[in-house]
UniProtKB/TrEMBL annotation:
<protein>
    <recommendedName>
        <fullName>Phasin domain-containing protein</fullName>
    </recommendedName>
</protein>
Amino acid sequence: MESQKISLDRLTAMQQKAQFVINTNLHTISQMSDVMNETAVQCIKNFDLPGIIQDAIISNARALLDAKDALTQASEGYKTISASAIVLYKLNLEFGEALRQAKAMHEVETKNNEAKIEKLASENIRLKTQSIWSFIRSKFK
């Protein structure tokens, strides 16, 4: 059980580290997206750029927004999946413990039943022996 607790702690730590990396990347892309959008707006407003360059600036800004949205969705998906994995792991630990308890209870019940069977068999032998002696005594009277 102790090793399983350590494994759960390691799983949780790995999940937290991965979530930190995702959050850091999301924050970085968010900042880049904000800067790119502001730069795009300023370039288009303040400079007489050819249409193709304006289109490229807008396209790059949109691509960063799309990347930000995709990473946000991935982050939410990861949170759900990793939380589910931890819940499943905990349920597995609880199931394993319940199974161990059921096995222990079964072993105790089996021993109790064996003791009852031995007692009944002993009583049966005693009664049969007593019956046989009674029969023998009755024949010699």
